[in-house]
Amino acid sequence: MLRNTILFAASLFLFAGCGTEGATADTTTDTSTDTMPIAAVPAPAEAAEMPDKGYKINVIDGTIKSPRKELVGKAGDVPVVINYGSPAVNERVIYGDLVPYNKVWRTGANEATRITFSSDVMVGESNKKLAAGTYSLFTLPTSKEDWTVIFNKVADQWGAYDYEESADAVRIKGASKPAIKKAERMDFALDGNLVELMWDDLVVTFPVSGATK
């Protein structure tokens, strides 16, 4: 009888072990999600960082109507910083009206846009050399299809009110194309070695590369 009792107890132990293993395989959960199911985990705030594009955008002053932003990244292998005001469309006609043709535009809002290169670069399809430094970045559109990009030596100025052509360091042609998706706010981006200006239904670009020594 004792032998039968021992065998019965052993069989109960084995059965309990098998039951626990089966339960574990079927019901394993990550305890880190017990108090916050996966569906309830808050999505990260809209990030301006584009690691796959090689740049990020920091909002320097978000309290003003046209937030001041700063793009930091690389156009190709060239470090670049672009500081600009980011106006909104607000149901306005942009090109040919708010951004007039045949007139130098500050390329943003409030202060003129500034672009900084930490080393000498070549800009534009014409490969014009630009020395390391910070420049105000103006544009001069004659139509939606025809843009001139201007690098001016006076980095700190308000809009284009005090702009002087005599202080231009380099002028190049910008390439324009219709935007795949309309941009409510004007922003800059980097795509490979291209600097992109995006606003409303248009994208204006110019290439940047390291200057050969």
Q: What would you note in describing this structure?
A:
The chain is mainly beta. The chain has one domain (about 55-210). Helix content is about 10%, strand content about 45%. It contains one helix and eleven strands; from the N terminus they run H-E-E-E-E-E-E-E-E-E-E-E. Strands 1-2-3-4-5-8-9-10-11-6-7 form an eleven-stranded antiparallel sheet, with no helix packed on it. The radius of gyration is 29 Å and the shape is globular. Residues about 1-45 have low confidence and may be disordered.
Features of this protein?
disordered N terminus, 44% strand, 213 residues
Could you give the distance between the termini?
98 Å
Largest sheet strand order: 1-2-3-4-5-8-9-10-11-6-7
C-alpha-based Rg, rounded: 29 Å
If you average the pLDDT, what whole number results? Answer: 82
The secondary structure category is mainly beta
> What is the tally of helical segments?
1
What oligomerization state is this entry in? single chain
Strand residues, percent: 35-45%
Low-confidence stretches: 1-47
Main β sheet profile:
11 strands, antiparallel
Shape: globular
**Using DSSP, what is the number of strands?**
11
Helix content: 10-25%
* Total of domains: 1
